[in-house]
Amino acid sequence: MSIPEIASKLVKNSFTELKKNSSSSTIIIVGSKNVGKSSLINNFLEKNEAPRETLVLEYSFGRKSIQKHGIDKTICHVWEYGGKLEMMKEALTAVPVEHNFYFCIMVDLNKSRSLWNVLEISLETIANNYKNPDTSPEIVIIGGNYDLFKNIESELKKLICTTLRSVAFLYKAHLIFYSQNEAPLVKKAKDMFYGMGFGKGISLKDKNTNYLKPLIIPKGTDSWENIGVSPANLDQIKARYISKISLEPTITIKSNYSEVQRTHPEPILDSLAALKCEELLNLQYFDSSIKEHLSCLT
Fold it and tell me: Is the pTM of this model over 0.85?
């Protein structure tokens, strides 16, 4: 059974029932590992449960009555992808989307070497999977773990912020920094998600372009002049970034877990076991935090 088939079976019955409602929106959130995606979703949906590791694709939903007696409801479908970046395009083909569609890319600001790979593959997924203008999503770039990022060396911080602003401006995306450990940032992110799920879309009331503070930049409000760099396409933005930051290796594993795939009688278990095997084999590659990156330079 393929990854899209696994994903489609996760919530097939419940999703079909919810889809009958008159108003709905879809949020897909992808990005770095251990950056707070699940915590952000739980906070938005007001779930008190402790976040657990997202293996491949998790589905949640929120529901809000729009009439006094709760006859009509607005449904927000939330899909969180937690699998390997290389499998994102295939896995997300199983996710049904509608006209109120938001695609959130959450990068770990404290992992400079993997930040670009997360951005690039996520943007490629959007271009590949949502070519139809009717299913084209509104893009949000979220810089996570800001509490760890805010005290790093100024020039490196400026480079990362400039890169994210450039990508956000190029792709007409919203940009917001987030930390689950800082209440003001939690509230801003929750308000933004509420607008996506139950409101009239994204409405970021504040704006900050100062890289010494958490960035919050609504789409369409930035410019190349304000960013402080010359106009560029994605390849040129990448070249600027990797001239200062070495990227983590791109790893492709195709044959190392064939034995695992024959271990279980159920195809679903075989696929999940293969994913876990891939993660374990990749532990030999380490994406250092920014502090560790700086210590290597001194």
Answer: no
